[in-house]
Amino acid sequence: MAYVSSRKLSVLLCVMPIREAKLYSSSILINSSVLGLFHLDTSVVPPLIYALMGSSREIAIGPVAVVSMLISSMVPNMVDPAADPIAYTRLVFTVTFFAGTFQALFGMFRLGFLVDFLSHAAIVGFMAGAAIVIGLQQLKGLFGMSHFTAKTDVVSVLGSVFKSVRHEWYPLNFVLGCSFLVFLLVARFIGRRNKKLFWFPAIAPLLSVIISTLIVYLTKADKHGVKIVKHIKGGLNPSSLHQLQFKGPHVAETAKIGLIAAVVALTEAIAVGRSFASIKGYHLDGNKEMMAMGFMNLAGSLTSCYVATGSFSRTAVNFSAGCQTVVSNIVMAITVLLALELFTRLLFYTPVAILASIILSALPGLIDINEAYYIWKVDKLDFLACLGAFVGVLFASVEIGLLAAVTISFAKILLNSIRPAVELLGRLPRTDIFCEVDQYPMAIKTPGILILRVNSGLLCFANANFLRERIMRCVTEENETDETAKDRVQILIIDMSNVMNIDTSGIVALEELHNKMVSLGIKVSLSQPNFDLHLVILNFIFLTFS
Question: Is 124 helix (H, G, I), strand (E, B) or coil?
Fold first, then answer.
C-alpha cells in the first residue's frame, strides 16, 4: 500500500517541478536564462541519488527558492549572466560541486550532531511559519499574477499581492484554483472519515491536474487570462563535467558561495526532514542526510543540475497524501525524465492555479496550534524558541527563523548552566535513600548535618561563583532557622554525583567555600564525585602545593 501511495503521488510530484521551473525563472530568479533551463534536470538525478542514500521517508528532493535566490544573487557578482551566460553557467555548476563536497565532508566527519540543535519547539514554529509563507506565495498562481516579489517574508509577499491585485489579477484563475482547492479539501475530509477511501485523497491532486488541463484545453481558457505552464524544453541537458572550473580568479569566491549554499541547503533539508520525521515518529540520521545531500549534489554538478535540497512544498504534498517510502523520489525522477522526453507537450495547458491549490491544500495540517499551546504550558523558554522560529520565518527568512530558534535554545542552555539549582536532601524514613526535601516532604534532615546536591553537569567559570554563593546562603539560612546550637550546621556534605566535569574556576570556588566554612567551624565533605573529577581535583592540589 505504501508503494502504491508513493507511485500515485510521484506522478503528481513530477508536475510540480515544471511549475516551479516557471515560477523560479520568472519571478524569483534574476537570471532566468540560465537557472530556469536546468531546474527540471535537478528534479531527476539528485532525487535518485537521495533515494539510495537518504534516511527521510517523506522528503522530496529538488530546487528550492532560498537556494535559487542565493545563487542568483551571489554568482552574478563574479560574472554578468547577460554578458557571458556560458561562464555564468560554469560557475553555477562549480558552486554546486563545492556545495556537494562540503556537505559530504560534513557527513564524513560526523557533524550530524549539529542537527540536534534544532529542538522540537523550533521545528513546530518553523513548520507553521514556513507553511504560511509558502501558502502566501501560492497566491501568485492562484490570482494569475505575472509580477511578484522575489522576497519570502510575509510583509513583502502581502505587499506584492495587494499591489498586483489592483492591476493584473484574473478572476478565472481564482475561480478555477478555489474550485479545485475545495475539491482537494473535501477529498481529504472524506479520506479521514472513511478509511476505506484512503486512496481518494491520494489521487485527488492527480485528478485535479488532469481534469483542469482538459478544461483549459477544451474551453480555450488560456485565451481569457488563465495562466498555464506553456512550453517546456524537452529532453535532458548534456553532461556538465567539462564545464567545472577549478582554475582562474573566481575559484575562492566560488568555494565560498558553495559553502554558504551547502549550509543553507542542509539546514533547510534537515529541518524539513526532521519536521515530518517527528510527526511520523522516527529518527532522522543527520550524518546520513549530509552524506546523501553531498553525493546527490556532486552527481548533480556533473549532470547539468544546480544545488538541490529538501523542498518544503513538495514534501508537504508528499506527506499530506500519505507517502511513506522513498519510492516517491524514484518514481518522480523517472516520471519527470519520461515527461521531458515524451510528454512535455501534454502539460502545455496545465493551469498554474491548480498547482497552487494543490500546495495550499497540503499546508493546514502543518500548523499545529495544539502543540504550540502544549509547549507554552510546559516550558515558556521552549515556547519562546518556537515563537522565534515562527516569527523569523514569517517576517524574515527560513535561515533567520532557524537562527533565532537555535540562538534562543542556546540562551536557554546557557541560562540553566549559569544558574543551576542547589537541592536540599534528606533521608527517607526507614531507608538509606536521600532525596530532595521539596519533592519528598517526608524526608528527614539529620541535625547538625546539611546535605546539598549540585544540580549541574558542569562546574565551571560560568557558574562557580553563583554556586559558591548559593551554598553559603543555604548554610546561613539553615543556621538562622535552627534555634539550638546542637541543630546548627556542623558538617556540610555536597553531593557531586551530577557534576561530570570541573575546571580550575570551579576548583578555586570549592577551595574558597571550604576556607569560608572552616572559618565558621563547619567541616566540608564532597560526596560521590566521579573518577575524572577526582583526578582533576587531585592534580590541581598536587600542582598547587608541590
Answer: helix
